[in-house]
Amino acid sequence: MALAEQELTVGVDAVLAFYDELPAATENDMLGDWDGQVIPTGHPGERYLHGLRWAGTRFTDRDDVDPMMCLDDSGERHAIPFFGDATLRMVEYRGASSATVVHHQQPVFEYFRKVDEGTMVGVVDRKGESEPLVFVLRRRV
């Protein structure tokens, strides 16, 4: 997806306009392992995810989500419990009910829209932040 490949920062308003045009993702759409990539909007969390070597997300089922799959020094993916437990639920956001990661120990929601069967755009809404962090997930094959 071109927005995630940008070397320069993309305006969050432009990214959200694109997001709003996409169909909502369902819980079943999200099941499986996904590679992740931040869309560079200048959000401070982008640097943090880079430092953690965030590599994507694993959705085993609606009650078992590993939102922080990170790379170790050998390049292997592992779930890290940085945000604690999370579940997948349908929640309304920006006018559509879509698959949403609900973090239990943090005031964080991740809402998904579907580009195609193998590509999702996620928006992280964290209490107290004025703008969301935006990312792309691509299904692992």
Describe the structure.
The chain has 141 residues and is α+β, with helices and mostly antiparallel strands. The chain has a single domain, classed as GXWXG domain (Lipocalin, Beta Barrel), CATH 2.40.128. It is 16% helix and 47% strand. The protein is built from 3 helices and 9 strands; from the N terminus they run H-H-E-H-E-E-E-E-E-E-E-E. It has helices at residues 12-21, 27-30, 45-52; strands spanning 32-38, 54-61, 64-71, 77-79, 86-93, 96-103, 108-116, 119-126, 133-139. Strands 4-3-2-1-9-8-7-6-5 form a 9-stranded antiparallel β-sheet. It is globular, with a radius of gyration of 14 Å. The model has no long low-confidence stretch (mean pLDDT 93).
SS-based class: alpha+beta
Q: In the CATH hierarchy, what is the class?
A: Mainly Beta
Q: How are the strands of the largest sheet arranged? A: 4-3-2-1-9-8-7-6-5
Helix content: 10-25%
Discrete helix count: 3
- Written as H for each helix and E for each strand, in order along the chain, the element string is HHEHEEEEEEEE
Number of domains: 1
- In the CATH scheme, what's the topology name? Lipocalin
Largest sheet: 9 strands, antiparallel
Overall morphology: globular
The CA-CA distance between the termini, in Å, is 17 Å
Relative strand content: over 45%
What is Rg? 14 Å
Mean pLDDT: 93
- Low-confidence residue ranges: none
Oligomer: single chain
**Architecture, according to CATH?**
Beta Barrel
Q: What's the CATH H-level homologous superfamily?
A: GXWXG domain
Number of strands: 9
Set out the fold topology.
Blueprint: H1 12-21, H2 27-30, E1 32-38, H3 45-52, E2 54-61, E3 64-71, E4 77-79, E5 86-93, E6 96-103, E7 108-116, E8 119-126, E9 133-139
